[in-house]
Amino acid sequence: MNDAKTEAEKAPAPLAATPSKRRKRNRSVSQTVQYALFVVLLLVVAFTANWPVLASQFVRLDIAARLFPRLLTIALKNTVVYTISGFALGLVLGLIIALMRLSQVIPYRLLAGLYIEFFRGLPALVIFMFVGVGIPLAFPGSEIPGGTYGKVALGLGLVSAAYMAETIRAGIQAVPKGQMEAARSLGFSHRRAMLSIILPQAFRIIIPPLTNELVLLFKDSSLVLFLGVTLEERELTKFGRDLASETANTTPIFVAGLCYLIVTIPLGYLVRRLEARANAAQGRS
């Protein structure tokens, strides 16, 4: 009897759960609850939404068929043209402002800083209204080259330049200072070293954020409707709104939104791939 009691006393007590195991168990329970709530929410939406009404209002195939081919040959084409022209102008202007921001000349830095703060602080809609109305009033008889295409390029370019200038400045400052010092020791002037050595490296660094800016500009091109465009100058949003008014149905707007997704989702995927590649390159270095 005593021997049995002694053996029972010598038997190891069961180990208590370690803190890491408890955290893992709590995390598993929390995730299970979240998944269950998500499934419940989906079921509630699936069984309470009025799908026939939604389909008749947003997915009328007969109305969607009437959008083609003008949706592609006019609306999507104009949206792409507006975006590329605004991006090109913004990139050139942003590069100039970034270099002014980094200049040793104080007035240049002040002007660049004021530009960036001003155009980043104003809504893009205000800039478009200024381009469409303010400039003709300020300079009577003057016209922006390119008509509506020139106005859209100017509006998008002014807005995007403020953001791209800061992106380019950050990219230039991310290049090791030794690159400039090495170039100057080889006899390069500051300007030549900046153009030939620093800027190419900086642009490799900032390709992902610049691509992201292109996605934002693609969506901001919808502001062209405030400039008063002709039927042949409409972009996706204006085109969808006009057809929605004609058909008394929102299917055209829904289809136009799908066109935005068809372009922006691949661009977003490209941004993630470029960022992953840049991070991998930094890890190897």
UniProtKB/TrEMBL annotation:
PROSITE patterns: ABC_TM1
Presence of the UniProt keyword Oxidoreductase in the record: no
Primary localization: membrane
Alphabetical UniProt keywords: Amino-acid transport, Cell membrane, Membrane, Transmembrane, Transmembrane helix, Transport
UniProt topology in membrane: Multi-pass membrane protein
A Pfam family recorded for this sequence: BPD_transp_1
ABC transmembrane type-1 domain ranges (all copies): 76-271
Protein name, UniProt field: Amino acid ABC transporter permease
The species this protein was found in: Pendulispora rubella
